[in-house]
């Protein structure tokens, strides 16, 4: 199965944003600082995941 580095980055960004916002919502209020932290988590996840290349191998592990 081949997953492009773009979709890999999008999924990691969504996961980072959801995780950050789920922690921010525990007190039923999302402050501006928590919103910025969630946004930065998404950007960091997008950037770092996109920068790491997918493994290229021809071996089938099955």
Feature tags:
62 residues; 0% strand; mainly alpha
Describe it.
The chain has 62 residues and is mainly alpha-helical. It contains two helices and no strands. Helix 1 (5-24) packs antiparallel against helix 2 (32-51). The longest helix is centred in the first third of the chain and has 20 residues, at 5-24. The protein is elongated. The protein starts with a helix and ends in an 11-residue tail after the last helix.
What is this structure, in a nutshell?
The protein has helices spanning 5-24, 32-51. It is mainly α and 62 residues long.
Task: State the shape.
Answer: elongated
Total strands: 0
The end-to-end distance, rounded to whole angstroms, is: 13 Å
Order of helices and strands: HH
Structural class: mainly alpha
Mean pLDDT: 86
Largest sheet: none
Note the beta-strand portion. Answer: under 5%
Percent of residues in helices comes to: 55-70%
Task: Walk me through the topology.
Blueprint: H1 5-24, H2 32-51
Helix pairs in contact: 1-2
């Amino acid at each position: 199965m081949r997953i492009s580095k773009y979709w890999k980055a999008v999924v990691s960004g969504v996961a980072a944003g959801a995780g950050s916002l789920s922690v921010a919502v525990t007190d039923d209020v999302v402050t501006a600082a928590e919103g910025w932290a969630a946004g930065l988590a998404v950007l960091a996840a997008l950037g770092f995941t996109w920068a790491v290349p997918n493994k290229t191998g021809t071996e089938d592990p099955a």
